[in-house]
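ok new one. same drill as before - structure tokens go in, u give me an amino acid for every spot. 560 of them this time. try not to just spam alanines like last time pls lmao
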């Protein structure tokens, strides 16, 4: 087994890693550290969060930097404030025995004056979000003249968030840069371009497979009908009483709505979304970190950069359109060697999407049955019993009360006491789940057996006459009153279902009621529409332009 010493890490840092309980380097550390310690080699590390990449660049940086010089020598740029703070926290731990080294975090949403003051005290390592860093450069509050090492952490996230210009600006304004280290979970073309333009023949290392999920994560999914999504979520939460998890939604309205509903029903949950002030966001994150909140519900944007250890579950309330988003979401769990579960609640019509993600992640997704009410009660029951047995009673002055208790319960049997204890805890579940219905969608097996997905045909059979569209109307199956139209616009064009619906309705001046289901993919979509108005829709949309591109719409079933 490789050791940190064997990788060339010096004694003061090893003392720190020992104290942190790091026994052996992780694979990314093993591969990156010897390269980075040279100080002059550019480096690209394709690694997910949770692989130990902060130490992979943090340890070599600390070793390379001169404690005597009080100028910034290393710049770590990362996408979010949370990640910024996280990195500083880890570096502080690593540099515990290097008193002369100082590190500071600069990020948006906090007082710039304070950060300028911190910078003036003399720091060697600056950890920054791109926007705030540019602010500081423009105010001449940070000196990049002596920067030798630039680390771009979560480069794909930064580029996704539109920080490309800022990153290029930063790279152009570090004239003494001796090496650039780029870390990214994925390698989209934009990241590749940055590395090509600003790095000299970088050593490239991939830990696991780029674009694939972490092996410590078990991918599971539940199939329900769309009107049962919320109930399914609740049932999954109830079935996993020890869960400490993040639920992802596509919209902030969903995040807010579900958080409110679940809070009303007694769950410890709060939402993280773009409308929160920095103070509110910090408060929510603080509560989640110290586990006052069992659950956090967040949109993808709001959850960027969150790094909380020990997350047991990630729940996709809906599947994201993009496989990379799925990878980011699921990567919040199963960190640093621990096991995690990424669950998705899918509608039978979304299974084709799930299969696509599964293919990209290159790991099997396991279908689980949505637990029945009885299953939930049983699970809660066992959980409670275990908790009861493990309750620490060594601290309280229970002995004083024992005689009193004994007297009070003199005529009640042990079984009776147990029943009552359980009843006080369980009434809520028993009552709630007494008549709980089966939430598993019944169409799933038939849908999976069909091979029509590859042709872009996601029609669901009406095998039991129950399949309904999202507004609760019975779904025609495409062979009744609906025509199915193909359009060459999709999520890549910036549309979500609602905005897309509005867009085509505005264009065709048709009523919402004439539409059936809409299936959106990245590049194309399929729309169900009343046959009587399908022609009108095609005539008003086909041939129009969107962002300079010609829109093509035609009847999907009559396409060559
Ligand atoms: P990161 O990829 O930097 O987000 O690291 C994920 C977690 O792994 C952090 O909590 C680190 O403290 C932990 N970690 C990093 N390196 C090691 C190691 N060699 N052994 C054990 N834990 C580690």
């Amino acid at each position: 087994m490789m050791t940190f010493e064997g990788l060339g890490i010096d004694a003061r840092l090893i003392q720190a890693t020992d104290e942190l309980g790091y026994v052996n380097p992780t694979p990314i550390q093993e591969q990156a550290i010897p390269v980075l310690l040279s100080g002059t080699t550019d480096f690209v590390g394709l690694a997910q969060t949770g692989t130990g990449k902060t130490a992979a660049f943090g340890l070599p940086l600390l070793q390379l930097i001169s404690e005597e010089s009080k100028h910034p020598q290393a710049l770590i740029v990362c996408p979010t404030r949370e990640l910024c703070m996280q990195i500083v926290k880890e570096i502080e731990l690593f540099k515990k025995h290097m008193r002369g080294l100082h590190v500071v975090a600069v990020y948006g949403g906090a007082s710039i004056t304070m950060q300028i003051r911190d910078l003036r005290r003399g720091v060697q390592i600056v950890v920054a979000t791109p926007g705030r860093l540019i602010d500081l450069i423009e105010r001449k509050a940070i000196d990049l003249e002596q920067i030798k090492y630039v680390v771009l952490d979560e480069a794909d996230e930064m580029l996704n968030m539109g920080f490309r210009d800022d990153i290029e600006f930063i790279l152009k304004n570090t004239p003494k840069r001796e090496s650039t280290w780029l870390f990214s979970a994925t390698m989209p073309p934009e990241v590749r371009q940055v590395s090509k333009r600003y790095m000299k023949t970088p050593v490239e290392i991939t830990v696991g497979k780029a674009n694939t999920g972490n092996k410590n994560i078990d991918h599971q999914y539940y199939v329900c009908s769309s009107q049962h999504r919320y109930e399914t979520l609740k049932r999954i939460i109830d079935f996993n009483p020890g869960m400490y998890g993040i639920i992802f939604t596509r919209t902030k309205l969903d995040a807010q709505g579900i958080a409110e509903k679940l809070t009303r029903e007694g769950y410890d949950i709060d939402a993280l979304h773009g409308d929160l002030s920095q103070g509110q966001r910090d408060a929510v994150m603080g509560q989640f970190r110290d586990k006052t909140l069992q659950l956090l519900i967040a949109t993808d944007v709001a959850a960027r950069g969150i790094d909380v250890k020990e997350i047991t579950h990630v729940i996709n309330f809906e599947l994201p359109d993009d496989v990379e988003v799925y990878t980011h979401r699921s990567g919040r769990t199963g960190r640093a060697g621990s096991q995690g579960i990424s669950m998705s609640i899918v509608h039978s019509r979304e299974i084709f999407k799930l299969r696509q993600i599964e293919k990209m992640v290159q790991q099997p997704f396991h279908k689980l049955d949505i637990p029945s009410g009885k299953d939930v009660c049983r699970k809660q029951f066992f959980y409670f019993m275990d908790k009861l047995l493990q309750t620490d009673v060594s601290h309280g002055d229970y002995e004083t009360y024992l005689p009193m208790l004994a007297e009070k319960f003199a005529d009640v049997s042990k079984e009776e006491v147990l029943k009552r204890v359980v009843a006080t805890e369980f009434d809520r579940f028993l009552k709630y789940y007494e008549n709980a219905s089966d939430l598993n969608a019944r169409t799933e097996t038939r849908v999976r057996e069909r091979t029509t997905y590859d042709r872009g045909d996601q029609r669901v059979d009406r095998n039991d006459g129950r399949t309904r569209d999202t507004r609760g109307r019975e779904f025609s199956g495409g062979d009744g009153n609906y025509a199915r139209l193909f359009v060459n616009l999709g999520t890549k064009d910036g549309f979500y279902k609602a905005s897309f619906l509005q867009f085509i309705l505005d264009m065709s001046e048709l009523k919402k009621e004439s539409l059936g289901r809409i299936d959106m993919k990245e590049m194309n979509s399929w729309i169900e529409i009343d046959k009587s108005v399908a022609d009108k829709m095609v005539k008003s949309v086909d041939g129009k332009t969107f962002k300079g591109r010609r829109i093509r719409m035609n009847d999907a079933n009559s396409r060559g």
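The mean pLDDT is 84. and btw Residues 22, 25-26, 29, 49-55, 307, 309, 335-336 surround adenosine monophosphate (CB under 6 Å).
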